[in-house]
Design brief:
- This protein is of the alpha/beta class and about 500 residues long.
- The chain has three domains: about 350 residues, Alpha-Beta Barrel (TIM Barrel); about 50 residues, Oligo-1,6-glucosidase, Domain 2 (Oligo-1,6-glucosidase, domain 2); about 60 residues, Golgi alpha-mannosidase II (Immunoglobulin-like).
- The protein is about 25% helix and about 15% strand.
- It contains 14 helices and 18 strands.
- It has an eight-stranded parallel barrel with strand order 1-2-3-7-8-9-10-11. Strands 12-13-14-18-16 form a five-stranded antiparallel beta sheet. A three-stranded antiparallel beta sheet has the order 4-6-5, with no helix packed on it.
- It starts with 11 loop residues before the first strand and ends with a strand.
- The structure holds alpha-D-glucopyranose.
- The site of alpha-D-glucopyranose has 9 residues, from loops.
């Protein structure tokens, strides 16, 4: 095992609780469902789980509209279910990370209810209020970021839906209350947090316009938003964490700016979404890996992701092809940094086709939130046979029960990759050196190991060594079409 903090080269498994497993018959996944499957995650080999928000929420933005930071939604089983999950995870050596949403609350949060009813009251300045829209900012969900509240008779700022008013972190009470929220969960025993859109919290109180906003891209502001105050706030947040892990979502379009949020006083890690946006091309993946290596230098590294609750699953993005999903997994789990696996990608899931009536997310991000199938029969192990979202395609094949019985299948590939990462400190912590390779092949060294990924549909002749793991068997010393391998030497 490598030395250093546990998260350095660890594999974190993201769970979207609504979609993991329902044990009550509500049709919505719950925390006892997560507890029931922890042994499976131990078998898979991950080090930690990250739970997307579990707090009471109206669910306008899938739980990212938090109405009470200090409780667990009864839908998920409430605090007792959370305490059961945490204890069971720790018994098994699994760490638990919570999603922390600092930029905004739900409009149903008592702080906002108080703020809109009583401008002079204790929460009057906890949000951003103005008599007229104070700037040109758009909401990432479309339309302006300012909405008139009929109760207070003023406009409030919301960079996401109008049900998610932005908190004003310049108000001391907001800072104190939000940091107390972190302390509350740390006292309860959590191992860290994933901080949602955390680049947005620092604000110039004058809220200046942002020049040259692209009217066709509602994400332009979020993707460009930088304010030096965010760094000071991150230092205050990190001080509370007392050694616990903090990974941040800093969704800047210019990825080279992200490492400035990552150091010994700010985030431990920030997500790198560049592989999520990359087309199926060795050159494109190589340039993104090279950019991250250059931006972080040897001392830092990103949290890598292929899939999440916000994007179509990577297999869907790459033509629905399992061979590509396997190559992508091999790259993800052999990169330098902290890879995040999104629940269900290890089953090779793709997104279902959904009718407009089946969609519930305002941005249509529902496909990757389809429920995880655990067994082959209809109902797939869920207490309610018809969950809140349709099953992903081929759930009778792509489920845990069937795939655990297939040692050549994609689930075992994930398991073997994670085990390899654990066995080889070079994969967790070692340097990464990009290698010259034939067109269509991505190759790099990790200490004493070499990774070769053939993005083409033809076999490629590459230098071969002892194959430790391959997504497809090698043929005649060639790297098979659309295949990847990890070699010793
Ligand atoms: C993050 C979350 C996304 C949410 C947004 C607003 O990007 O991942 O699901 O809609 O923040 O909270």
């Amino acid at each position: 095992m490598s030395s250093g903090p546990w998260w350095r080269g660890a594999v974190v498994y993201q769970i979207y609780p609504r979609s993991f497993l329902d044990t009550t018959g509500s049709g919505v996944g719950d925390l006892d469902g997560v507890t029931a499957r922890l042994d499976h995650l131990v078998w898979l080999g991950v080090d930690a789980i990250w739970l997307s928000p579990i707090h009471p929420s109206p669910g306008v933005d899938g739980g990212y509209d938090v109405a009470d930071h200090l409780d667990v939604d009864p839908l998920f089983g409430g605090l007792p279910a959370f305490d059961r999950l945490l204890a069971a995870a720790h018994e098994r050596g699994l760490r638990v990370l919570l999603d922390w949403v600092p930029n905004h609350t739900s409009s149903e949060h008592p702080w906002f209810v108080s703020s809109r009813h009583d401008a002079a009251g204790p929460h009057g300045d906890w949000y951003w209020w103005a008599d007229e829209p104070a700037n040109n900012w758009p909401s990432a969900f479309g339309g302006p970021a300012w909405t008139l509240d009929p109760v207070r008779g003023q406009y409030y700022l919301h960079l996401f839906t109008s049900a998610q008013p932005d908190l004003n972190w310049n108000t001391p009470g907001v800072r104190a209350a939000m940091l107390d929220g972190l302390r509350y969960w740390l006292d309860r025993g959590v191992d860290g947090f994933r901080a949602d859109v955390v680049n947005l919290i620092g604000r110039d109180p004058r809220l200046p316009d942002l020049a040259d906003l692209d009217p066709a891209n509602p994400n332009d502001l979020v993707g460009r938003y930088r304010d030096p105050r965010t760094h000071d706030l991150l230092r205050a947040i990190r001080a509370v964490l007392d050694g616990h892990f903090l990974v941040g979502e800093v969704p800047l379009a210019d990825m080279s700016a992200v490492p400035s949020y990552v150091d010994s006083t700010q985030l431990h890690r920030a997500f790198d979404f560049s592989l999520m946006e990359a087309p199926w091309s060795a050159q494109a993946w190589r340039s993104r890996i090279a950019a991250a290596e250059a931006a972080y230098g040897p001392a830092g590294a990103p949290a890598w992701v292929l899939s999440s609750h916000d994007q179509p699953r990577h297999r869907s993005r790459h033509g629905g092809r399992e061979d590509r999903a396997r190559v992508a997994a091999c790259v993800l789990l052999t990169l330098r940094g902290t890879p995040f696996v999104y629940a269900g990608e290890e089953l090779g899931l793709t997104d279902p086709e959904l009718t407009p009536e089946q969609r519930v997310d305002p941005l249509g991000r529902d496909g990757s939130r389809a429920p995880v199938p655990w067994t082959a029969e209809p109902g797939h192990g869920w207490a309610a046979p018809d969950p809140w979202m349709p099953w992903p395609p081929h759930a009778a094949r792509r489920n845990v029960e069937v795939l655990r019985a297939e040692p050549d299948g994609i689930l075992w590939l994930y398991r073997r990759l994670i085990a390899l990462r654990r066995e080889h400190p070079d994969l967790r912590d070692g340097e990464l050196t990009l290698l010259d390779a034939p067109p269509g092949v991505l190759a790099y060294r990790r200490g004493g190991l070499t990774v070769q990924a053939n993005f083409t549909d033809s076999p490629v002749r590459v230098p071969r060594g002892e194959v430790l793991l391959a997504t497809e068997p090698a043929r005649d010393g060639m790297l098979a079409p659309c295949a990847a391998a990890v070699l010793a030497g």
